[in-house]
Design goal:
Keywords: Exonuclease, Hydrolase, Ligase, Nuclease
Number of strands: 18
Oligomer: single chain
CATH class of the largest domain: Alpha Beta
Shape: globular
Radius of gyration: 20 Å
GO molecular function: exonuclease activity; ligase activity; RNA endonuclease activity
CATH topology of the largest domain: Metallo-beta-lactamase, Chain A
Bound molecules: zinc ion
Strand order of the largest sheet: 7-8-9-10-11-17-18
Protein name: Putative exonuclease, DNA ligase-associated
Largest sheet: 7 strands, mixed
CATH superfamily of the largest domain: Ribonuclease Z/Hydroxyacylglutathione hydrolase-like
Length: 340
């Protein structure tokens, strides 16, 4: 018997009769994290980490049936032991571990090894079968230390202040935005777009402490923003909102900037390689450490990464999923498409 199978609706556990991050409506869904490609609308029941619950309410609706548990808490679903383990991707993100008759499978969702200071750090979980992402599964991706990266953001803000400029960061609203806030905390007033503010509130309601911020009304005069810090989601790059910000210097925060950061992208003035996914070395480190007998590679550089794993003697295959159409894609698009 297989503990998990791959179906048209998503990753399925036949013994437990539930899915993990399904993309079609099902009875019971275990959700790894709040990004829209993993947490979708239409499930009868949801199970997730306590910190992900308010995000699901925010994004899917307050009328969903949702149970939440803590990290390392084990619950039993139709005889299968189910537990969540920190994935280090965003606040509340979890790897899902299933165990039945001594055999275990771990579904990682999205993950990163680096400790971003906000998300509970990635926990290595040994298992027989590991399902991994591979968003940045090419050797060209190797991230800076978080401290070094944050220092670059801080220096950029300080330079802008000296020059009478407003520091406008473009980063995905769930994950990046909170990391940027944390990185520049104390350097000036932080203003975040409404869409980011809503998610911040959801986190604050479950006890996560974030740096102080304000939500500006872009319909009013925004002169007072000058010299300060503003964070907006990728969809707003080149929008009238950004054009209204006085003396704006813009910076894109995305893992894709690692190989493209040297150039000017669209209308942005700067780029910082900030990613919530593991880099090449991080992926390899995680996969090897699970000691899994079989590795399934879901979204990202699936072909290259699984081929490499096979060449170093691990058994790996590629699984078609509908993940990866969300945050990374939104960022990739604004970076790759030249502006008007
Ligand atoms: Zn994600
Ligand atoms: Zn993903």
């Amino acid at each position: 018997m297989k503990l998990i199978t791959f179906t048209k609706k998503g990753i399925y556990c036949p013994q437990g009769k539930f899915y993990i991050d399904p993309w079609r409506p099902v009875e019971m869904a275990v959700i790894t994290h709040g990004h829209a490609d993993h947490a979708r609308w239409g499930m009868k029941k949801y199970l997730c980490h306590h910190f992900t619950k308010p995000i699901l309410y925010q994004r899917i609706g307050v009328d969903i049936e949702c149970q939440s548990i803590g990290y390392n808490e084990v619950i039993n679903i139709n005889g299968v032991k189910v537990s969540l383990h920190p994935a280090g991707h965003i606040i509340g993100s979890a790897q899902v571990k299933l165990e039945y008759k001594g055999y275990s499978s771990v579904i990682s969702g999205d993950y990163k090894i680096q400790d971003d200071g906000l998300s509970t750090p990635f926990e290595l979980v040994k298992c027989n079968e590991f399902v991994t992402e591979s968003t940045f599964g090419l050797p060209i991706y190797n991230w800076l230390d978080i401290e070094e990266l944050n220092k670059r953001l801080q220096n950029w803000v300080l330079r802008n202040k000296e020059n009478g400029k407003t520091s406008v960061f473009i980063g995905y609203s769930l994950g990046k935005a909170q990391r940027i806030m944390k990185a520049v905390e104390g350097l000036g007033k932080i203003h975040v777009h409404y869409s980011i503010g809503k998610l911040n509130e959801a986190f604050e309601n479950v006890g996560i402490r974030l740096p102080d911020y304000e939500i500006p009304d872009f319909k009013e005069s925004t002169k007072y923003l000058q010299n300060e810090i503003v964070i907006v989601p990728p969809a707003l790059l080149d929008s009238s909102i950004i054009r209204k910000i006085p003396e704006a210097a813009t910076a894109i925060c995305s893992g894709w900037m690692q190989v493209r950061g040297a150039r000017r992208w669209r209308s942005a003035d700067a780029g910082f390689p900030m990613s919530d996914h593991a880099d090449w070395a991080g992926l390899l480190q995680a996969v090897k450490a699970t000691e899994a007998e079989i590795v399934h590679v879901t979204h990202g550089q699936t072909e290259v990464f699984s081929k490499y794993l096979n060449e170093i003697g691990m058994k790996a295959d590629v699984i078609e999923t509908l993940y990866g159409e969300d945050e990374e894609e939104a960022e990739k698009e604004i970076i790759e498409n030249p502006g008007p």
